[in-house]
Automatic annotation (TrEMBL):
<protein>
    <recommendedName>
        <fullName>Yippee domain-containing protein</fullName>
    </recommendedName>
</protein>
<feature type="domain" description="Yippee">
    <location>
        <begin position="47"/>
        <end position="153"/>
    </location>
</feature>
<feature type="region of interest" description="Disordered">
    <location>
        <begin position="15"/>
        <end position="40"/>
    </location>
</feature>
<dbReference type="InterPro" id="IPR034751">
    <property type="entry name" value="Yippee"/>
</dbReference>
<dbReference type="InterPro" id="IPR039058">
    <property type="entry name" value="Yippee_fam"/>
</dbReference>
Length: 175
C-alpha cells in the first residue's frame, strides 16, 4: 500500500475541489416571523415576592413554610446574614452555587448560596443537609433573606380575597 498520491504530486501547489455528485443538504430555514430566543411571558404569581434590584419573581408568600411543619422545640424566627429571613418550599428564577458547609447558630449545615437568576444579587441559601439530628427538618428548604425581597402589588389575589391569618410569620411588612 502506497501513501504517495500521484495526482497531488503532479498537480500545482493549489488544491482544487472537485464538484460533488450529490447536492448539498441544508436544514430548512425558520420562518421570518418566528424569533428563536424570545422571553417567555412570566406567569402571574399570587402574593409574589420579587428581587429588590431587578423585580424578577423569586417566590410567593403562598409557599412560605407553614408553622405546623416547624418542630415545637424550634423557634419560628429565622435570621440571615443581613437580617430577617424565612423558609420557603419553592423558588423561581434563581441560581444555586456550589454547596459548602456553613457553621450557623443552630449547627453545621451543607448549603448552596442562592442568587437572582437575572441580576445575580445574593438572596439566601438552600439547605441541602443539616448535620445536627434536631435540625434535619430544614433539609430541602430555601432560606431567603427578606432584606433582598419585596412584595409585589398583587393583581392575581387582591387583598380583599386573601385568607386572613392570625400569625404574621414571615411578613414582609407591605401587607
Amino acid at each position: 500500500m502506497s501513501y504517495y498520491n500521484d495526482k497531488f504530486a503532479a498537480s500545482s501547489s493549489t488544491l482544487t475541489v472537485e464538484p460533488r455528485s450529490s447536492p448539498v443538504r441544508r436544514l430548512p430555514s425558520l420562518p421570518a416571523d418566528r424569533r428563536i430566543s424570545r422571553p417567555l411571558p412570566t406567569p402571574k404569581v399570587p402574593r409574589a415576592l420579587v428581587c429588590k434590584q431587578c423585580q424578577a419573581n423569586i417566590t410567593s408568600n403562598n409557599v412560605l413554610l407553614p408553622v405546623s411543619r416547624i418542630p415545637p422545640d424550634s423557634r419560628p424566627t429565622f435570621r440571615g446574614f443581613s437580617g430577617k429571613a424565612s423558609l420557603f418550599t419553592e423558588t423561581y428564577n434563581v441560581k444555586l452555587a456550589k454547596p459548602g458547609v456553613q457553621l450557623m447558630a443552630t449547627g453545621a449545615h451543607t448549603m448552596s448560596e442562592i442568587t437572582c437568576g437575572s441580576c445575580h444579587i445574593y438572596l439566601g441559601w438552600k439547605i441541602l443537609k443539616a448535620h445536627e439530628a434536631s435540625e434535619r427538618w430544614k433539609e430541602g428548604y430555601f432560606l431567603l433573606e427578606l432584606e433582598h425581597l419585596f412584595a409585589k402589588n398583587d393583581d392575581v389575589a387582591p387583598l380583599s380575597l386573601r385568607p386572613r391569618s392570625r400569625l404574621s410569620y414571615g411578613s414582609t411588612g407591605s401587607e
